[in-house]
Specification:
With 172 residues, the protein is α+β, with helices and mostly antiparallel strands. It has five helices and ten strands, in the order H-E-E-E-E-E-H-E-E-E-E-H-E-H-H. Strands 1, 4, 5, 6, 7, 8, 9 and 10 form an eight-stranded antiparallel sheet that branches. The protein is elongated and about 90 Å long. This is SHOCT domain-containing protein.
């Protein structure tokens, strides 16, 4: 009976291990490999700490406190610095695929970096925020020109006013 229980526990524990990768192409288009340097941006938490960079290994075990979910987050002193990738892990959390980098910073502990979430919140640079803001600006200029055209067609503004506003919006 003890052997059967031990065998079941062994199988369950092996299933829980994350798959290790040697490289990963992230959502920002960068192909990260073990040994590469990752440039950090600013933390996305209200106090400036990093939501998607957390203490790992023995540091996480020693720092764990009941009833406190953010005690493992890395603080804002790491903003605008760089970390080096030690391992790349792929795991499923609640059915969703998550890629985690185990990184080394100046501290004597490992840090777990959930890369795609960190990119979305600009905790890692380059992030997806710049591409999204450029698209929004282009759409808003186009929308403004359409509004001006409707005003011109309705007779609310003159052709000269329309041309001047269009020139201003396009930066000509």
């Amino acid at each position: 009976m003890k052997k059967a229980l031990l065998f079941i526990l062994l199988i369950v524990s092996l299933k829980g291990y994350a798959q290790k990768l040697t490289e990963y192409k992230a959502t920002n288009g960068v192909n990260y490999k073990i040994g590469d340097t990752v440039k950090l941006g600013r933390g996305s938490a209200p106090n400036g700490s990093f939501n998607y960079m957390q203490m790992g290994g023995i540091g996480a075990f020693l720092a764990h406190k009941q009833q406190r979910g953010d005690q493992l987050n890395i603080d804002k002193t790491y903003a605008n610095t760089a970390v080096v990738i030690k391992n790349i892990k792929s795991s499923k959390i609640n059915g969703a695929q998550k890629i985690t980098f185990v990184v080394k910073a100046d501290a004597p502990l490992n840090i777990n970096l959930t890369i795609d979430d960190a990119i979305q919140t600009c905790e890692v640079l380059p992030c997806n925020d710049k591409a999204a803001s450029g698209t929004t600006q282009t759409l808003s200029v186009a929308d403004e020109i359409l509004k001006l055209k409707k005003l011109l067609d309705a007779g609310a503004i003159t052709q000269a006013e329309y041309d001047a506003q269009k020139k201003r919006l396009l930066g000509l």
